[in-house]
Protein 1
Amino acid sequence: MKLKNYNWLFCLLMLPSIAGADELNQANTAWILTSTALVLFMTLPGLSLFYAELVRSKNVLSILMQCFAITCIVSILWLAEVYSFIFADGGEMQKFIGGASKAFMPGLSTDSLVGDIPESVYFMFQMTFAIITPALIVGAFAERMKFSAMLWFSTLWLIVVYMPVCHWIWGGGWLSDLGVMDFAGGIVIHVNAGVAALVTALVLGKRKGFPTTPMPPHNMPMVVTGAGMLWVGWFGFNAGSALTADGAAGMAMLVTHIGAAAGSLTWMFIEWMKFGKPSVLGIVTGMVAGLGTITPASGFVGPAGGLIIGVTAGIVCFYATQYVKRSLKIDDSLDVFPVHGVGGITGSLLTGFFAASSLGGLGLADNVSIIDQVGVQALAIAVTIIWSGGFSFAMLKIIDKFIGLRVSNDEEIQGLDIILHEETGYHNL
C-alpha cells in the first residue's frame, strides 16, 4: 500500500465493526496498555495538579476533587452505555449514533479483540479520552461552581455532547464517512471541550473581583510539575492513537514533541517581546497550546508540519488568550477556550494542509484535494461548535433552574475547599 494512503487504513482499523485482524498482537497490546496508563496519568495527576495549582490556595482541593470525581463518573458511564453508543453497531442509525449491544459489555472475554488488541484494552484506552474531555472544562468554571452542579453537568455533557460527536468522527458516523481527519481528538476533545468551556464561563459569569483583582497561581513549581506530566502523558494520547507499536506511533510521538516545544518557545518569545520578561506560566501554557494544536494532525503530518503547527499554536493561542481575557473580559478562569478550543480549531484546519504529501505529510485520500479536505475539517469544526455550544448552554440553564450553578458571593470569598468539602489544602495558611 502506498504511504499516502496509510492514514486512511488507520482510520478503518479504528472501527471495531470492520477491524479485520483476528490474532492477538502482543507488541501492539503492550503499547496500548502503556498508552492507556499514560493518558489516565494526564488527568490524574497531570491535569488535576496543573489546574489545582493555577487557582488560589483556598480552592486547590475543589479542583482536585472535581477531576477525581469526573474520572470515577465517566468510568461507570462508559461501561453502562457510552462506549456502546459510540462504538457498537447502530444499525439504521449508524450515521448518527451507535447501538446498545455493548452496554455493560455482556460478551466481553479475554479473547475478545478489536483489530489485533484485546477489546478490554481498547475499551480502557478510549475511556481515558472520555475522562479527560469533561475534566478540561473544569478550568473554565474554577473557583465558583457548586460541586453538585459540576457533577450533573459533567454527566449530562458526556452523554449528550461527547458521545454523539465521538461517534460521528471515531465510531463510523457521518463525519467519518465524509473523511474528516482527527487523529487523536482535536475536534472530538479540544474543540468540543473548549466551546463548552466558553459557554460555561459566559453562563456562570465572572469570579468576584475579575478582572481588577489579581488572581495569580498559588504554587508555580507544582504548576510546572503538572505541565510536565501532561507533556509526558500526551505521548500516550497521540502516539497511542496509532493502535500499533510501529513507525506510525513513532512519527506521532515525534511530531507531538516538536509541536509542544515549538509552542512553548513561540509563546515565551512573544511574551518576552511584548512584556519585557518571559514567564514560567507563559512557557508551560505555550506547551499545552502546542500539544492541543498538534493533536488532530499528529498521525498525519511529518516533523516540518509539526514544527509549523507548533509555532502557529504559540502565536494564535497567545493572542486568543489576550483577547478573551483583556478585550472581551470573559472569565474563562484557566484559559480553556483560547488554548484548547482555539488550538483544536487551528490544528484541525492545518491538518488538511500539512497532511498532504506535497507538504511533507503522509498524504490525503485518493482524489481529495487540500481545499476539499480543509472544507471537510471546517464542516466538522462548525458542527461540533454548534452542537457543543447549544447543548452546553441548555444544560447549564436547566441545572441552574433546579439546583443553581454557583456558590454565593460570601462562599466564593471564603473558598470552595472549606465551603463545599470542609477541608483545606494547606493547614499552615
Note: The chain has one domain: 30-106+114-418.
Protein 2
Amino acid sequence: MVFKDYYKILGLSTNRVSAQEVKAAYKEQAKKYHPDLNGGNIKFEERFKDINESYKVLSDPTAKRKYDRIWYMNIGRKNKIGRKAPNSNKEAIMGMFFGSSEIQTKIKNNAIKGENISTQITISLEDAFFRSY
C-alpha cells in the first residue's frame, strides 16, 4: 500500500493545522490544479482527485485524527529506528531463527493503540461460574 501524504498534497508542511488552514490550502490547490482550467490534462485530473481526497480526510476531525496516527508513523517521526548490521555471522543466523532484539524493539515502538470498543453481554451468574466458552 502506498501512503499518500495529504499534508504535502495540500502544500502544508506540518500536521498541526487548523480546519481553516486546511480549507484555505484546499482552495489554493484546487484552483491551481483544476482540470477545467488546465485543458483536461490527465495528470492534473489525478492531482485534483488526490487534493479532493486529502481535503475530505483532513476536514473531518475523526478521520484526521486517525490519519494523523498513520502520518506520524510514516512521516512525522524524526528518529526512526534503523536496522544495524549484525556483528557476526552467528548473530545473523540466530536473529533469523529466533528474532533480533532490534527488530522486536522496533515492532514494540511502532505499535499503534486502537480505538476503545465496549459492548454489553447478558449472562447469568450460574453460566459465568460453571461454563467456559
Note: Residues 1-78 form a domain with the Helix Hairpins fold (CATH 1.10.287.110).
Protein 3
Amino acid sequence: MSPTPRAAVLVGAAALAALLVPLPVAALLAVAVLAATGVDAFLVRRPPFVRRSLPATLSRGVAAPLRLELEEPPPGAARLRQPVPPDLRLEPSEADGRLDGVLLPRRRGRHVLPSAAVRLTGPLGLGAWTHSAGEAAEALVYPDLPAAFRLALAVRQGRFRDTGRATRGPLGLGTEFESVRDYLPDDDVRQVNWRATARLGRPMSNQYRIEQDRDVVCLVDAGRLMAAPLGDRTRLDAAVDAAAAVAAVADELGDRCGAIAFDAELRRNVAPRRGGGRSVIGALFDVEPERVDSDYELAFRAVGSSKRALVIVFTDLLEEAAARPLVESVHVLRRRHAVAVASAADTDLDRLVRRAPETALDAYAASVAVEVLDARARVAARIRATGADVIEAPPDALGAACVGAYLRAKARAAL
C-alpha cells in the first residue's frame, strides 16, 4: 500500500493551512486525508485476476501480440505492466486499463515470462496497491518457422527456384511427370506444356512428381565454433533455422527426417521418421553452443549404417586445422550416405574485402578477412574432394540453399 501524489499534495495543503486556520483544524484536515487514503487503498487491497494472451508458438525475430486485461473492472484505476527477460523485447511494456503490446523474441530457447504487475488506485485517487498478478509462464521461442513454412509452401506449389545447377526436368521439382495444371507466374518456361496450351487456349504447365520415402538427417554442430556471432544471431541460430526449413520441406515431400545435435557428446538424437519435422524442431529449438571442440566422428557414428540418407552437416568452415577432423570423418561417412556440409557465410568479411580501405586499420582488417576467406575456401575444396557437397550462403539464405541441395539430391536419385 502506498499514497499517491494526490494524497501527498492534500497532506501538504493541510500543513500549509495551519498558517491560515487554527492548528487543530489543520491537524484534523491532515488526519482526514490520511484516513481517506487508508480507506481508498483498502478498497483495492485484493489482487486482481489478470488474463494474459500470448501465442503458443513464438519464433525468433518474429513479432507476436501480447495482451493483459483484467477479468473484472477495479473500483478505481489500474495500470498493468509485463516485465520480460533480456532476450525478449516488449513494446509497450505497460499501459492503463489493458495492455496490448508487441513481443519480439531475440533468442531461441526457453524463457521465463514473469508474473504481471498491476498497480490499482482507489476511487478517490489517494491510495494505491501494487500486486503481482498471475503466475510466471514459460515462453518457448522456436527458430524462424514462418520462413521454413514459406519454403515448404513454395515447394508444394512448384514455385521454389533453386539457384544451383540444373537437373533433368525443372529445377527442384523432380523428374517424373505427374499431371498438367494451370501455368503459374513463377513457373519455369521448360515446364510449359505447349500442346495443352494450344488445345485449351490458356497457358498450362507440367507438374513433376518428387520421389518420396527418402531419409534426411540434419547434423547440427553445437560446439564452440558455432557461438560466433553473425549480426543479430549466432552461427548455431542460422544452422537451426536452416535445419527447420529442411525438416518442413521433408514433411511436405513425404520423406523421413531426423536430426542429431552434438558437440563433444551427443546432445539430441531424433531418428528419421515420416512427419518428423515437428520432432526435429522440438529437439533443436533450445540447443545452445558449448565451449568445447566438436567430435564429428562420434556424431557420424550415430548416423549408423542404416538406409542411405542425405546427411546435412551444419558447422563452421573456419580454418584447416580445426576442420581436419571434419574432413577425415566426412570421407568415412561418404561411403554409405550422400553428404552435404552447410555453413553460414560471414557477410561482414565479404563487406570488408569489397570495401575500399580508407585508413591503415581498414587495410589490415581487409587483409585478415582475405586470409580467413582463403582458409575457408581451402577447407571447402578439401571437403568437395571427398565427394561431399559444400553449401555456403548468407544466414538469411542458408535455409533456401540447403533445401535446394536437398531437392537436387532427390532429382538426381542420390538418396
Note: The CA atoms of residues 300 and 333 lie 7 Å apart.
Protein 4
Amino acid sequence: MSMLERDRRRVWHPYSPPQAGPLFEVVAAEGVRLSLADGRELIDGMSSWWAAIHGYRHPVIEKAVAEQLERMPHAMFGGLTHEPAVRLCERLVEWAPGNFERVFLSDSGSVAVEVAIKIALQYWMARGEFGRQKLLTVRGGYHGDTFATMAVCDPVNGMHELFGANLKSHLFAERPACRFEEPFEERHIEDFARTLRSHRREVAAVILEPVVQGAGGMWFYSPVYLRRVRELCDEMGVPLILDEIATGFGRTGEMFGSNHAEVSADILCLGKALTGGTLTLAATLVSDEICGVIAEGEPGALMHGPTFMGNPLACAAAGASLDLLETTPWRNAVKSIEAQLRVELEPCRTLPGVADVRTLGAIGVVELAEPVDMAKVQPAFVERGVWLRPFGRLVYAMPPYVISPADLSALTGAIRSVLAEVHCA
C-alpha cells in the first residue's frame, strides 16, 4: 500500500473532508524547494503557511536546535525555567513596539489569541467590572480555529459560519474600506467608532490584525485606520489586542504590521514565523498595566498552562530566527519581492474572472470573482513546478524572503498561466 493510500485511510488534513485530495507526498525540503516522492521539485510560494521566512533547513536555526537537543529537548514550564525561554521573552519585549512587561509562551497562534482574550477578560474581572464580556473587531478578520478565536472571526463570510450557534456573540464593525495606499477619511472609521462608543461598558478589548487581514480575505487597509483605532481605544479606556501572527517578523515590509501605523498594542499576539517555520511556538505579550491589575486581583494568576509551553527546542529555534532577522538584509529582500510581485501579477488584472490584484511586502494576491476549483487548480500548480495553496476566491503568494528573482518569476508565471488556462478556461 502506498503512503498516499495509507494517508487516505487514516489521516485527516486541515480544512478537508475525512479523505483529502489531491495530496502530494513531500519527502524533503531545503531552501525554497519542496521535494516530492516522485522526484519533482516545487518552488514553495507559501512559506509553509507563511512561517518559513528564511527557507527550509537554514543552518543557523538547525545548529541552534541541534545544540539544544543535546542539552534538553523539553522540561515542563510549571515551577521550572530555562535560558532559551527567558532570553526569547527578553528579546521579544525589546523588539515589540510598546511597553510590554511579560510574555506568555504557547504552542500555536490560536492559543496565543485565546490567551489574549482570557487576559482581557480577567483584567476587567480583577477590576471588578464583570459586565465587560464582549470583544469588538471588524468583519473580514481571522484569528484562529478554536472556539474563542472563531467567535472573533468574520461571522458571515468567514470559514466558521457553521458553528455560529455555538459561539459567543461579539461586536463587529464594518471592514476597513480604505486600502493601504489610499487616503484615509474619517468616514472610514465611523461605524467602528459608533460601535465602540455605544458599547463601551460591555467591551473587554478590541482585537484586530494590523494593516493586513490574513486568512479572512487578504485585505490590506490604511495604517491611519489602525492609528485611529488606537486613539479611540485610548479615548474609551479599552485595551487593544493586535494579532500579529501573520504580519509579524517582516512579512509586510516592517518588522511588525503595527509599525506602519507607529502604534502599539496593550496585548500582542505572535506566532507563525517566530521560529522561522521550524517548530511550533507562539507568544502573547502583555503591558505592564494589565499585568499589574491581574496580579492584584483574584486569583492573581493567569489561569492557563499549555503542557509544552516554553519548549526549549522551539525557543532555541526562535532565538536563531531572530538572530537572522538581526543580521541579514531581509528588509531589502522583502522590498524587492514586493516590487517584483507588483509588476508580475498586474497582468492578471486583465484576465476574465479576476476581481482585484494587490501587493504589500512579501504578499501578492489575486482575488477572483468565483472560488477556485481546488481539484483542478492545485495539480495545475504542481505540474508547473510550484507550490501554492489558494483558498476561496484568493490565489496568493507569500514566499520565503530568500527566494531568488528567477524562482519568484516562476511563481508569478504559474499564477498567470493557471488562471488563464485552468481557472478561466
Note: The chain has 13 helices and 16 strands.
